[in-house]
Amino acid sequence: NSRGTASLLKDSISFTDVAASGLFEGHDLLRRGFTSVKNELLPSHPLELTEKNFQLNQDKTNFATLRNIQGIHAPLKLQMEFRAVKQVQRLPFLHSSNMAMDILRGNDECIGFEDILNDPSQSEVMGEPHMMMEHKLGLL
């Protein structure tokens, strides 16, 4: 046998691999929520993907323009400020307006769709605070 023992070990499948992604694996509703076919569908219109990534594309364009005008230090400084602002968060069951991110992007003076129709007090999605904190901390 010219294949040797290394190839025999590579061909074998461990029990943990089969158990973790087995055919009869149960779906954990508390951690993953309900399964939705909508999330697995392809975009129905060619512009849908562009609209989903609008803010990312706009940030890339702004960074490229800023780099061409002021040099590489300006977009790097702005990206560090974005990261610092993203790390500051409220508790997972409280709504956050992300005002600091809006100020950095220059959207603080603009009135958009989410400002009028995204009122958190009328939101139908409110989880149990203790369960949400345990999930965020990895205790569940």
TrEMBL record:
User: Which Pfam families does this entry report, sorted A to Z?
Assistant: UMP1 (PF05348)
Coiled-coil residues? none
Single GO BP term: proteasome assembly
Which keywords fit this entry according to its UniProt record? Answer: Chaperone
CC annotations in GO? cytoplasm; nucleus
Q: Which InterPro entries match?
A: Ump1
Query: What family is this protein classified in?
Result: Belongs to the POMP/UMP1 family.
Q: What is this protein called?
A: POMP protein
Q: Which organism is it from?
A: Daphoenositta chrysoptera
